Structure formats: C-alpha cells, structure tokens
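[SOLVED] Need 3D model of a two-part complex

Original post:
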Amino acid sequence: MKYKLFLYQCIRSREVLLSLVLILVLGLSGIFIGNRHLSERQHAIDEVKDYQKTHFERHVSLHNDDLGLLLYYVKFSFINPVNPLSGLSIGQSDVNPAIKRITIKTFEAQKHDSDLINPMNLHSGNLDFSFVLIYLMPLLVIVFAFNVVSEETETGTWRLVSIQTRSKLGFVITKLSVRLLLMVIVLVLLFSTAKVVLNVPFSTNLMLLFAMAFLYVVFWFALAFFVVCFKKPSGFNALLLLSVWLVMLILWPAGINAFMAFKYPVPEALNTAIAQRDGYHTKWDTEKLPTIQKFYDHYPQFKEYGYRTEGFNWLWYYAMQQMGDDDSQKERASLTAKIKLREERSREMASWIPNMHMQLAFNRVAGTSLDQHIDFLNSTEAFHEKLRLFFYPKIFEEQKAESIDWNQFEPEYFETSSETKPIFLLTPLLLAIVFALLISIPKARKL
Amino acid sequence: MKFANVRLLALHFIRNAVQPKSFYLIYLLFVLLTVYATVSGIQNHVVQNDIRKSYQVKARHSWEANPDKHPHRMAHFGTFAFRIGSPLGMFDYGLESFTGSTVFLEAHRQNSVNFSDASFSTGTLRFGELSMALLAQLVLPLILIFIGFSSIAADRQNGTLKILISQGANWLEILFGRSIGLFILALLFVLPVILATLIALLLYGNTLTSNGLWWRFALIVLGYILFLFVVAVTTILVSAQSKAPKNALLRLLGIWLLMVVLLPKSAQTLGSYWYPKPTKLAFQSAIEKEEIQKGDSHNPDDPYYKKLRDSVLAVHQVDEVTDLPFNYGGFVMREGEKISSTLYRKHHADLLKTYQDQNNMSRYMALLNPYMAIKQLSMSLSGTDFSSYIDFQEQADDYRYELSQKMNELQMQYISPKKKSGSEGKTHVVDHEHWSAFPDFVHRAVPLKKSIAEAALAFISIGLWGFLSFGLLLLTAKKASAL
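Solution:
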C-alpha cells in the first residue's frame, strides 16, 4: 500500500513521466542503431566471402606460370566476426577495421591500414545503448531523486512525515527504492528488447552487462542520496547534482583525454612506418647474398633452395619483403609497448571514475575495446605467418598456381576473447557505491 | 525604452550576480580550466607537430640517401606525407584526434591515411577532449544558465517583478537590461579564453605557413561573441516565461541537453543512416573493375595496351618497342598511372560526396541549433574540420601523382629502350642527384577562403539567431505579464 502511494507520487510529476518516455525512446533508438551497425558489419563480411573466390580465379588465370607474381597481388581475408553484444556498445569498432585483407608481403606495411571512415561520424560518436546508459540514465536518476526530501519540506509535509514515521531515514530510503525499482524496470525492458532485436544469446556476458548497468544506476542513486540528505531546496539540489554530472561525464574525462594526448603521443607509429619501408626497400641496393643469408637465419628450413644471386628471382624478392618485418622489429616492439602503456594508463584512470570505467568495461565485454583490436591484429599476424610458410616453398619451387587448391583459402575468423574476471568489472562500481554511501552517513543520521 | 533604465537594470543584474561568493568560485574554476586547456592544447600541438616534422625530415633523408637506381624502384620506395596540425588547433581540436596523420605515397597505390590518435585510444576518447573551444561552446552556456535562470522567474515568484513594473520600468527595459547584463558576464568569462588563445598563437602560431591566421582568430572571436549573446538572451527569455526559478532551470537544462548532446549526435547518425558509405572492399573493387574494363596492364594480351603499343610503334615507324627513342616500360606505366589515378579520383570524389551528404545533416541542423553552428564555425576557421582534412589528403595525393609520373618520365628518358622490363640490378639506373632534385612534400594550410566558405552557413545561422533573439525580446516584452 505504502509503496503504491509512493509510486503514484513519483510518476505524478510531468517531468518524471516525460523523462521516462524520453529515455525509453532513446534507449530503443540506441538498440536500433546498434542493430544497424551489426548488419553493416555482417554485410561487409559477406561481401568479402563472395569477392575472395572471384579474386583468386582472376589472378590464377592471369599468372598461372608465375606464382611469385601471383602472390604479389592476391589478398587473403582475416575477419573479426560480428559479436551481437557489440550492438550494445559499439566502442572502438567504428574506427578499427574488422576485416583485414593481406598479401604475404611485409606485414607491418599492411597492419595499420585504416578503413574508409568519415571522421565527422567518429567525432560526434555513436548514439548507441551504452551512451544512453552512461550519459542519460544518470540524468533520469537526478530527475527522479533530486527532490525526494525537499518536495516534502517545500510543501510542508516533512513535519507530518517526521511525526508519523518511525524513521525518517527509512522513509527517504523507501521513497528512493521505489524510484530505483522503476529504473530497474526500465533497464529490464531495454535489455530484453536488446536481447531480442540484436539476437544476443543468453549468456554470462549479457548478465554481466546488466549487473554493471544496475550498479551504475545504484551509484547515481547513492550520490543523489548524499545530496538530498543536506535537506537543501530543490533548485539547489538540482544544480548541485547536475554540476556533478557535468564534472563526471564531461570535464574529467575530457581533461584526462587532453592529458593523455600530449603525455603519451605515439611517434613510434611513424618511426615503425619508416623503418619497415626502409627495411625492405634498401635491400634492392645491397648485395643479394646477405639478404638471403638473413632470410635463412630466420627460416633455416628453406636453406635447401640455395643462394640465387643472379638477376631477379622471387626467393630474393620475398626475402627482401621479409626484411621489412624483420629489420623493423625493434621499432615494432616499442610501438606495441606504447599502445599497451596508453591502454593501461587509460584503464587505470578510468577505474576511478564510474562512467569512464563503465564505457571501458562495456566495450571489453562487447569485444570492442582497444586491447581486443590489438589481439585481432596479432592474430592477423599469425595468420599472415601461416600463409607465408605455406607459400614460400611453393614459390621457391616455381610451382604452377593451378597445382594449389585455392578453395581451401576461405576467409578465416578471429576468435575474440571477451573473457574478463567479473570482479575486475564490478569492483570499481561497488567501491564507488560504498564511497558515496559512506560520505552520506553523517548527514543521513541527522535527517 | 530608456537607455538609462536599461543600463541601470544591466548593472543591477551584474551586481546581484557577482554578490555571492560562489560566483568567484565558478569564475576561478573556469579560469583554471582555461589554463589547463591552454597548456594541454599548446603541449599537444607542439609535441605532435614536432614529431611529424622530424619524421618528415627523416623520411626525406631516407629518400635522398638512395643510390643511383632504377626510377621505378624509387617510385615504390616512395615517401611519406605527414599532416601538420593547424595553429588554431590549440584552441579547437576539432577532428584532430580522429583523422590519420601519416600516409605512405607510392606508385600505383593510394594508401590510407593511418595512425589517427583514435586508433591507438581506448573507448574513453569518446567522452571528448578538454579544449578551449569546448569550454566556450559547451561549458560556458551551462554557467550562463546557472547564473541567469532565476533572473526574472525569481522576481516573479517573490513579487518584486510587480513592484519593478509599477515603479516605471517597462518589460522591454527589463528584458534588455538583464540580457545585456548576462551577456557582459559572458564576455567576462570568455575573455580569459580569448586572451589565452591570443598568447598561444603569438608564441606558437607560426607552425604552418600561417594563412590569414589573424583573420581566422578575429572571425572566431566574433562568432563566439554572437553565440554567447544568443545564449544570454535565451536564458533570460526562458526565465521570463517561467512561473518559478525551478521550472526555468529545468527547461533551460533540457534545452542545453537537446542542443549540445542529443541533436548533434542524432543529426550525424541520421546522416550516415540515409547515406550509407560503401565498404572499403566495395570501394576498391569498383575501381579495380573499371580499371580492368579500360585496360589491364597486368595482362600481357590486353587489347587496350596492345592497341596503344601498335599506335606508338606506327607513329615512330618502328617494329619493336626496343627500337623506340624512349623506354617503353616507363611510357606504359605513365599511361597506367594516368588511368588509375583518374579512376581513383572519380570514385574518391563519389565517396567524399557521400561523406558530405552525411555531414550535411549536421550542417543544415546548425540553422536550427546555434550550438552546432558555433561548433562548425569554430572547427572550420581553426582548420581542424572535415574539409581541412580532405585538403591534406588531396595535397598528398597530388604529390604522389607527381612523384610517380616524374619517376616514369625519368625511366622513359634515361633507361635504355632495350630494357623491356624489370628494375633490378645496377646497370639500368638513373643518377641519384635526381632524387634530391625532386622537392619534398610540404603540407600547406587550407586556404582562408575555403575555410570561410565552409563556415559561411554556420555564420549565417548564428547571425540569424542573433536577429531572432532581438525579435523574441521585443515579442516577449509585448506579451509578458508580471503575474
């Protein structure tokens, strides 16, 4: 009975109803946008599958007698498959390509090739579900909670409440929990819609996302609780909570990003680009023997193909290409280290700020984080190595292209690992909640 | 309307606003944020440009260090173009973090511009970056809302509005007075941002062959002043039409959220929904297909190249390509480069058209949304917008084309016609002095005219909003009541 009245009191307000409807509509459009993102990516993957077959056929018919030349041209596809959860949190998957089409030449020269991208789209960001959750849900919590005490004091019912209830604190908490319940219903509605629309299998990952969303909402309720306990006027509460929102959602992250940009630039990327270019191209001017020697140092199993140094030959050519990768190893290692450093720093800083942590954790579970993309690139490299090892002897033996079964080269798929210990994802949120509750205690006792 | 009254009301408003200590706290915070944004803006600009410039030099050294060799080898050795950030990027990062910085330029291939900051960043980058522009266009309006929301609504609620009017002030004077008061406070806030930008430009503004830098700066300042005027008037008007301060605050925040967060995102999303871009594969294979139709230089029996050879032989009245007065291989590659570049540019123009269509949604939305207008104006004039990036891409591709063709011409001229194919070895080579004779890539700043043309619509929008605010002030003054 009491709860029913509280619920009625809460949704009686026009602002509350309006914002409830707004958040549902935006949440649904976020899911819809995520769905479109998924279908675009699936379309791109299907396209690659169809293309690869005709691509092979054309080049095999043109260069049947010259396998070395054929492999100069043909590209093999390695694909980061569509994960339905990425529809919930598009993350970095709009900037990082999910399909790599590579030749067996220098890998480093192909590793960082970017997709076709409209930078304006990246700049404005995706209105996906994670955005609605991270940016807008807190605003809804603020609208729900900013006046739970002050509306009583301002209409004069607070005195009545203090006489009629056993515990004023209990009264405030009940009022807040009714609102929390309402929010949970919204979350359940949105998550179930997402599950159906995006075709997400029922998994621990989905549950994990829901748990994080729930904790995030609870965190904002706890903050609101801290503020309303001061029993200040409604206007003041609204202002204060919105300022907190502004600082947490915009100023802090923006400040940290500006800091990261100048503190950890990535000159290593440019250095690597030049090193791999020089690693390969300068070999055209040096003696062939040392290049081939170095190649055999890397792959002693091919020594039997001898040291052909007269004129142009493919053994020497691919040995040179190999040097693009081998001679830029130092630079490549420092690039990898820098990216890792940036990733770690970013994650560390984010773990102190719940909304930033949420974004990273969501991306992580959805498979759209930076480190998962790096994993994908590393797997692409392994795929590339496999191709090299398969084709090198065939090129050196000057086999005919038709002697190879080209149908075996279907596009291959990367297996994303979105395995993360839930404790790493949930702990920062739990700690934030505990912190918000702890600082509320002094005022809450004197309600 | 008496000017003396307007002045009195404006001064009164300012005095009231600066009375509470919290005002100074907010001001101090804003100044501190400005300092932080300035320092990080300068740092970022200087560090990034130093890196890129030093690698441009390094890449050039590497190019010039090549010994005598076959020009086609040089065409593939290629070089790099590094995008230099524009000086006003210190003020407004714009798309800086989302556009690549480096492109490898070689024969036959238009490589992608790689290594954007975003590609090495975690998802937190999407929260935005703290720049001076962000403070002035996103944070400052919120501060103005906080200062001004109660200006008239509170007077109405506690009855002073009635007294004010009965004492002889009319609505027009009240609205103008308060708007001007709030606008002056806005100028007080934006002043440190302008000064900081000025200092940054004076100290570090000479990075790119500066292109109307001070014109850009002046127009940006003008744009922001107009924008803040619109914000100040809107705040006062909403306050005048609200029964209680709380209502005014909620309405104003709703407007802020809509204008600053929801509309910009939705506009861009809708744009890319209506004008889907092709996948990279579809883009590349469309070019490949047309190339093959035109003439396949990889195919020794291709009819187009066969015809070309026969006609060249006929003109020079010889039977074999080895008897021509120039190296035929270089000639074929020059033709191939011409064909493939023309095709690429055609398709790339189509792609850019699609991007433009996507972005137009935001451009036109700026007519309805002054925040989006100031954002575009600021980016375009700062040289960190979409068109500046495309300008770089085009400069790089022009250079790439010239480099390839120069190498093909060297091959035609200096490599023996008897050398039919292949570029290996030390016998058929060109003197290495030709390498340093070919000038290095220099990234020129986007022309001022182009930036102004880009910003024109946004300027018109803000100008119209300025007029509209005046009109609404007059209209509200007629209709408003003190109750």
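Edit: Chain A has 18 helices and three strands.
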